[in-house]
Amino acid sequence: MEAVGQLAATMAHDFNNILASVVGYMYLMRRKVDDPALLALSDKALSVVDRGRRLTSRVLAFARSDDLVTAAVDVRALLHGMEDWLRQTVGGAVTLTVAADEGVDLVATTDASQLELAILNLVINARDAINGTGSIGLHAGVQRRETADGDLPAGDYVVVSVKDSGSGMTPDVVARAFDPFFTTKPVGQGTGLGLAQVGNVARLSRGAARINTVEGEGTTVSIWLAWG
Ligand SMILES: Nc1ncnc2c1ncn2[C@@H]1O[C@H](COP(=O)(O)OP(=O)(O)OP(=O)(O)O)[C@@H](O)[C@H]1O
Ligand SMILES: [Mg+2]
């Protein structure tokens, strides 16, 4: 996976530079054109290039999640620090609540920027799942696992969860949700890298990510990070 990640990062980086040159030449060309039909076509071309640049930046962010720069992170502070930004992301019609357990250190050894990106990815998924109206609840707390659960060893964890009142997922979708490039969204709207990034961050923080979902009722995705 690491080699694939590096290859993807190199390709995405070079590809981004290629797209940047295309944009540059297109703007030069537009200066010499005053035919509205040609300008409209070049608008279309520019917006497609823009989609390409967004895709490559997603691939880059995903590739970087394979190589975390870890430090002790105060997850409560991180979550509260994101609140305004998340509210803007989901829009006014959505109720977004953020809560963190008090009286306990919510500290995990992880990569703060990658954890922020993971939380943002979960909130964007929740927003898409509720399709305009509904609620999204973020919570952070400490949980103890007395026994191992698959790839999650017994121990203490800081658990960040994002719960939505959205569409939920079918068992088929749950089974593939963490796979890189798996998406059910239309072309141009999803790259299928959001949950793959979430899974990487959790795994490399000595934890795992979990999905609890009920079709038609909603979904909770949790990031388990080894405590301390
Ligand atoms: N909260 C959710 N509710 C319902 N389905 C979800 C939720 N989160 C993820 N999914 C499903 O899992 C799929 C994969 O999610 P993931 O975040 O990896 O990719 P994406 O959202 O499709 O694209 P990207 O995040 O790269 O823009 C989604 O396409 C969707 O079908
Ligand atoms: Mg997503």
Q: Characterize the quaternary organization of these chains.
A: single chain
Named once each, the bound ligands are: adenosine-5'-triphosphate, magnesium ion
What is the topology, as strand order, of the major beta sheet? 2-4-5-7-6
What coarse outline follows from CA principal-axis ratios? globular
> Sheet bearing the most strands, described?
5 strands, mixed
Q: Which sequence of SSEs, written as H and E, runs from N to C?
A: HHEHEEHEEHHEE
Uncertain regions spanning at least 5 consecutive residues: none
**Overall residue-averaged pLDDT value:** 93
> Could you say how many structural domains there are in total?
2
CATH first level of the largest domain: which class?
Alpha Beta
Strand percent estimate: 15-25%
Structural class: alpha+beta
> What's the CATH H-level superfamily name of the largest domain?
Histidine kinase-like ATPase, C-terminal domain
Number-wise, the strands total: 7
The proportion of residues forming helix, as a percent range, comes to 40-55%
Rg, Å, rounded: 20 Å
Distance between the termini: 27 Å
User: What is the architecture of the largest domain at the second tier of CATH?
Assistant: 2-Layer Sandwich
How would you describe what is shown here?
The protein is α+β, with helices and mostly antiparallel strands and 228 residues long. The radius of gyration is 20 Å and the shape is globular. It has a five-stranded mixed sheet with strand order 2-4-5-7-6, with helices on one face. It has two domains: 2-64; 71-226, 2-Layer Sandwich (Heat Shock Protein 90), CATH 3.30.565.10. It has helices at residues 2-31, 36-64, 75-90, 112-130, 171-176, 194-204; strands at 71-74, 94-100, 107-110, 134-145, 155-164, 208-214, 218-226. It is built from six helices and seven strands, in the order ααβαββαββααββ. 49% of the residues lie in helices and 23% in strands. Helix 3 runs parallel beside helix 4 (112-130). A hairpin with a 3-residue loop joins strand 6 (208-214) and strand 7 (218-226). Adenosine-5'-triphosphate (ATP) is lined by residues 58, 121, 125-126, 129, 164, 166-167, 169, 173, 177, 182-185, 190-196, 219.
